[in-house]
Amino acid sequence: MSLNNKNLLRNKAYINGNWREASSGNTYDVKNPVDDSVITSVPDMGMEDVKKAIDIADQKFEEWSSMLAKDRSAILNKWYRLLMENQEDLAILMTKEMGKPLKESRGEIAYGASFIQWFAEEAKRIYGDVIPHHADGKRIVVIKQPVGVAGIITPWNFPLAMITRKVGPALAAGCPVVIKPAQDTPLSALAAAYLAEEAGVPAGVLNIITSSSSSEIGKELTTSDKIKKISFTGSTKVGKLLMKQSASTVKKISLELGGNAPFVVFEDADLDEAAQGAVDCKFRNAGQTCVCANRILVHEDVYDDFVEKFAAKVKKLKVGNGLETGIDIGPLINDDAVKKVIDLVQDAIDKGAKIVAGSNEPDGRFIDPIVLTNVDDSVEMFNKEIFGPVAPVYKFSNDDEAIKLSNKTQFGLASYFYSRDIGRIWKVAEQLQYGMVGINEGLISTEVAPFGGVKESGMGREGSKYGIEEYINVKYMLMGGL
User: Fold this and answer.
1) What is the CATH number of domain 262-439?
2) pLDDT of residue 57
3) Cα(first)–Cα(last) distance of the chain, in Å?
4) Where is the active site (predicted)?
5) List 220, 256, 456, 469, catalytic entry
6) Pairing with 418, which of 120, 265, 285, 434 sits 20 to 30 Å away (CA)?
7) CB 187 within 8 A of CB 29
8) pTM of the prediction?
9) Where in the chain is the domain with CATH 3.40.309.10?
10) β partners of residue 141
């Protein structure tokens, strides 16, 4: 791999400032999803290793949490700078292990680094309160303290940003972390850990466990009484299991789970802007994001015009190896992901849907972006997260129907709609049962705003001033005898 900084390609896990093999000596291969070629092998760690990492992090809690906030801030700011200085190498590494186009990988490095920069500043702004006292001779003070060691479990689709979005606030608040990156994409996490070490994060404060057994490691993190906080991004099914396991020790927990995002185009929308917004929202990362448009709902009066504009843009997208110039869509992560997408499309075709762009015949793990029309809420993909480059376009007749169809799901992560009517904008935005709403905008993620969902899309928020609260306990102190 042609990296300027060769140190970024790590093939060992990171515990207590040391690069380690698994206690068992076992390893597993990390492969490029384009062709299954082996990039490197990493330790396949087990219970003994994760327990060691938890013990070390627990021992480091007092030291890290008692450090002056401005000193933790300085370390995080240096980490941010190192991430950005190595942006190109980190992007190449990410594209190799995950497959997304290089231009998107560069964007993710900048996005991921922005959380470290943001929370470097928030570390100095964890304010308490003085509350007006309720009786003479008494005073009420509220302080905020770090919750303790945090267990971080992240997915493969954003190998760096899903880590920094959690680790940034944890370290800023004073919480050491034990990180379990996705089995498929551990290399971005290990490279980030190397740069964190270079930035001065003390040994034992940031630890990374690589393992092919997510369930085993997850269970240990959720049931250990030394882990005080769990943060997970992934499927709703796994999130429910982790939540159940965490109940045994009543941990603080935040979950960012599945999505089923509606993208609504009203009859007064700017159709050119809406079509481009739908392309940006749907096909980023080959549709493998939890906030991708999953159901495109278009008013019947503009349905045909929108489909024509949208399909024309989709047909221009270039599919291929993410390291090649001009690529818009890379491969899906694995064969199971391809099968799921193809099965969902076939189900829709069997129920009368028509393909107006793309093809349901994959080339290995590459799928041409597909636009489907003549679909309704009977198709499986109406209720399932597609996680691939497929855009079903549904039809609606009025505002109430659009809102009803949008909310007809157990999920509530992201939603989008296009309209120029200010009254409609307020009505729809307030009635959509989602944690995030994009209005005349298909890309909504930023470090300055709270990211998270409602219903079965999870709990808690990441990013913004609210994100650090997930790693903090509030303590009320009553002083008497004054």
Assistant:
1) 3.40.309.10
2) 98
3) 68
4) 256
5) 256
6) 285
7) no
8) 0.96
9) 262-439
10) 130, 477
